[in-house]
Design goal:
3 domains; 391 residues; 11 helices
Length: 391
């Protein structure tokens, strides 16, 4: 994309969370002018973007008017008004990844049907319209325990998901159009991020292990490289590459997998954007996921995904029982440890399980990195304060 060298390229990013912030930080290395739109005037991207525009990503007019201000448009979340994106695309605005891909990914039902259509391994599923329909399916013998309910739209970071093991769990059912999946006996969860540009060049980042915080269903630790077999790693890369080719995506695609007790891989979900499972790439991979996303959407040569050093990433989540102005404990102590890299997102208000930052620990020995990360996780606490007093 030759316009990149003119320093006049206006890149629009819809939503100004931490992903947008880190994307802008890499875009600034190439002197790209960055516009960001978000409802929150105090969003993490506000202080690093060239231009901030207040707007609702789900509002047609806000998205459309924002798109008219920029030369190229991308996004850092899925909950965006696709109709506005499609209109902008029809008028010639370059948008990547393509709004049609976003439309598919937004709806977990369409996403699952896509996997089924292209023979991509995923857990067996049915689509049902309401809580009552789910209960009736169980009572009629058409649906068996245990199963996982996922709302087709709107869920993220563990929200919009219920695990139903028996009739006692019926009170946990969510009401709305849903994907009902057979519950897999999971031995491990991994993720792989893949990049593809318009020329069809594809590069995969090394797979990572994901360890979840069970209460909030959020990733609490990520380990790279993943402790899986070469065969499993190769298969995950092949599946992710195949999905990217089927979608003809331009940009990043994060693919999350379940590995069952028999060692078989099942695609859980995909996200067409930078992803929480790729934050470690800033320090541990030759090309970060954020630079790679820019390379891919602008149809530039993709960067190396070679591992520089093994890494462990931990999410810094708001502590339970604390809401309000953020206060961090343990940063100084953690910074004294070799290989510890702290990223604070700049969110002023904390609440339980809110993602407030992340820490990446790099070390030549992955086991040492894990030990250091576990220690840092025990030391850093995200709390709140009021009038200089912790609450």
């Amino acid at each position: 994309m030759e316009r990149l060298v003119t320093s006049n390229l206006k890149l629009g990013i819809i939503a100004g969370g931490q992903l947008g912030k880190m994307l802008i930080q890499d875009a600034s290395k190439w002197d790209i002018i960055t516009y960001v739109m978000d409802m929150d005037e105090q969003c993490p991207s506000r202080n690093v973007a060239s231009v901030f525009v207040k707007g609702n990503p789900q509002n047609f007019d806000d998205v459309y008017n924002f798109g008219k201000k920029v030369d190229f448009l991308t996004f850092e979340l899925e909950n965006i008004n696709v109709d506005a994106l499609l209109k902008l695309k029809s008028e010639g605005l370059q948008i990547a990844p393509d709004p049609e891909i976003l439309n598919l990914i937004q709806d977990k039902g369409l996403q699952k049907e896509f996997y089924k259509k292209y023979n991509i391994p995923t857990s067996p599923f049915i689509l049902l319209q309401s809580k009552d329909e789910i209960i009736n399916a169980v009572l009629n013998g058409d649906l068996k325990f245990p199963f996982v309910q996922k709302l087709r739209k709107g869920g993220y970071d563990g929200r919009g998901v219920s695990i139903i093991n028996n009739e006692i769990d019926f009170n946990e059912l969510l009401d709305g159009p849903s994907v009902i999946e057979k519950k897999i006996n999971i031995s491990k969860e991994i993720a792989i991020i893949i990049a593809r540009n318009k020329n069809g060049e594809i590069k995969c980042f090394p797979p990572v292990d994901m360890i979840f915080e069970p209460k909030a269903n959020l990733v609490k630790m990520l380990v790279c490289p993943s402790n899986i077999s070469k065969e499993q790693s190769s298969k995950a890369e092949q599946i992710a590459s195949y999905i990217a080719e089927c979608l003809k995506i331009e940009g990043l695609l994060a693919v999350e997998f379940f590995i069952d007790n028999n060692g078989e891989l099942f695609v859980n979900e995909s996200a067409p954007r930078p992803h929480n499972s790729g934050h470690h790439t800033i320090e541990s991979i030759v090309t970060s996921q954020f630079e790679q996303h820019l390379r891919a959407i602008l149809n530039l040569p993709l960067g190396s995904t070679k591992l520089k050093l093994p890494a462990v990433m931990i999410n810094l989540l708001g502590e339970e029982g604390f809401s309000g102005n953020v206060f961090y404990e343990g940063l100084t102590e953690s910074m004294s440890i070799e290989g510890v890299k702290i990223h604070l997102y700049g969110k002023k208000i904390t609440k339980p399980f809110r993602k407030m930052g992340h820490v990446t620990v790099i070390d030549n020995d992955i086991n040492e990195a894990i030990k250091k990360a576990e220690y840092v996780q025990s030391v850093i606490k995200v709390k709140s304060w009021k009038q200089n007093t912790l609450v």
